[in-house]
Amino acid sequence: MKRVYVYDTTLRDGAQTEGVSFSCGDKIDIARRLDAFGADFIEGGWPGSNPKDDEFFSRASKLRLSGSKLVAFGSTCRPGVPADEDAGLKALAGCGSEWCCIFGKTWDFHVREALEIGLDDNVRLIRDSVSFLKDAGKRVLFDAEHFFDGFASNPGYAIEAVQAAEEAGAEWAVLCDTNGGSLPDMVRRAVGEASEELGIPLGIHCHNDSDLATACSLAAVEAGCSMVQGTVNGIGERCGNANLCALVPNLSLKMGMDLGGIDPSTVTDLSRYVGEVANMVPNPGMPYVGGRAFAHKGGVHVSALSKDPRTYEHVDPASVGNVRRILVSDMAGRASITEKLGRLGLEQGDDKEAIVSAVKDLEFRGYQFEGADASFELLVKRLRGEMEPMFDVTGFRVYTDDRNEGTESEASIKVTDRNGRTAHTAADGNGPVNALDNALRKGLGCFFPELEDVRLTDYKVRVLDEGSGTSTGVRVLIKSTDGREEWTTVGVSVNIIGASLAALKDSLEYALMRQSGSGRRSNEQSDSDLNG
């Protein structure tokens, strides 16, 4: 079994993503998480390039990593500046990291046009820079920048440049598809020839500008590379880097590679963690780790899955820490409903046709139950007569005032519980929906104090028919939590307030349904106490 080393560059290359700005604390937290994940190398940043990275390496030098090697990144010395006088190399030599990775030019076009020096001069820069770091006691990886473009242009020179790093003491040569434009066959051929000429192990570093970073990385491993570089969720400059959340499962589960201490079943948790820290909305369509990676909608698919999951799943979702999701929609059939009821822990009955019919009717009107399991569960229970409404909204008003200091909203609402008691309350909010939510919770709090812990965590609005302009209907999805679990509900109306209220009512009904003994309160409280 071939050993493949995983080199994470989320904290350096990933930090160059548009809109991403890791604090020093964020980088420390992610480094700890990557170490727990089992990454062999963690590239922390570029010492000397900015105060944040200087602070990171100062703090990171005190980290007790269990197995990962912390790597400092940098460049070869500048043309015309001796290696021992180059500020960037001196910063690397003085940082607390044992390992350093420096990049150098291997494409003759770049040497002439970007550095504006001779080809032999560039080879000397590479050799001198690696030698300087080795003399400083560092272990060195060499990133062969633009290697595949350079190999296509002048293969002899591209190899010569990497050989200079090897002769100077570099322990790894990492072949980079810096512009992200290479094809897998090109990568496979170049790696194959490089492995015959070089004596040190090879790594691969691909960018995703042609949407081929993962494919090219796998091709490189097949051709001889024993290290893959990438980022969590594929973040990075321009179109991003090779996605470790796809590389790790492919290498381990599909190619049978030994990834050391990495357990592929933890990759989904890592993906979501880094996404949260980076404050990036997760891509639900990401292979292996995305929310839609194992989501099934078509009735034919679900029917086959119930017989054997291998019919429509290439790996077990649990093998990457993800879960199977059965989507209930207007494409659902009896098999989808049967599977969905089972997953929600609901009894199987002879009413599946009625449920399918109700779902299709509601989705025709704009509802969507694919991401609203709580509303679907309430729908089933209501159709079966298993639950009565615990409260009713008998009236509400929403006011919005445009004042000098800004727009303010206020909502008043009247709610009645199943015993006929009424609460009439009002509340302010940051907009009409927030005001309505606050007023509804305030009123229901008179009857159901257990709702105090329930809060909204996400709110989405979708216009149903964009061609109808402002007169069209809207669908609102609301995600709520009580601190222990999360659930999503849906509401549809011709106006956003009505749709929001429908989703809010379902959210609170669901919370009460899940709590044992909810919806009841002592009748000793008088109606006069319920108005405020």
Can you give a write-up of this model?
With 532 residues, this protein is an alpha/beta fold. It folds into three domains: 5-277, Aldolase class I (TIM Barrel, Alpha-Beta Barrel); 295-362, no CATH class; 391-530, Alpha-isopropylmalate synthase LeuA, regulatory domain (Double Stranded RNA Binding Domain), CATH 3.30.160.270. It contains 17 helices and 16 strands. It has helices at 24-37, 51-60, 87-94, 108-115, 119-135, 147-153, 155-168, 184-197, 213-223, 244-254, 267-277, 299-307, 334-343, 352-364, 373-383, 432-444, 496-514, and strands spanning 5-8, 41-45, 69-75, 99-105, 139-145, 172-177, 202-206, 227-230, 295-296, 325-326, 391-403, 406-417, 422-429, 455-463, 474-481, 486-493. It has an eight-stranded parallel β-barrel, surrounded by nine helices. A three-stranded antiparallel beta sheet has the order 11-12-13, covered by helices on one side. It has a three-stranded antiparallel beta sheet with strand order 14-15-16. β15 and β16 form a beta hairpin. α5 runs parallel beside α7 (155-168) and α6 (147-153) packs across α7. The longest helix has 19 residues, at 496-514. The protein is elongated, with a radius of gyration of 29 Å. The N and C termini lie far apart (71 Å). Residues 466-471 and 516-532 have low confidence and may be disordered.
Write the layout of secondary structure elements.
Blueprint: E1 5-8, H1 24-37, E2 41-45, H2 51-60, E3 69-75, H3 87-94, E4 99-105, H4 108-115, H5 119-135, E5 139-145, H6 147-153, H7 155-168, E6 172-177, H8 184-197, E7 202-206, H9 213-223, E8 227-230, H10 244-254, H11 267-277, E9 295-296, H12 299-307, E10 325-326, H13 334-343, H14 352-364, H15 373-383, E11 391-403, E12 406-417, E13 422-429, H16 432-444, E14 455-463, E15 474-481, E16 486-493, H17 496-514
Parallel strand pairs: 1-2, 1-8, 2-3, 3-4, 4-5, 5-6, 6-7, 7-8, 9-10
Antiparallel strand pairs: 11-12, 12-13, 14-15, 15-16
Helix pairs in contact: 1-2, 1-11, 5-7, 6-7, 8-9, 12-13, 16-17
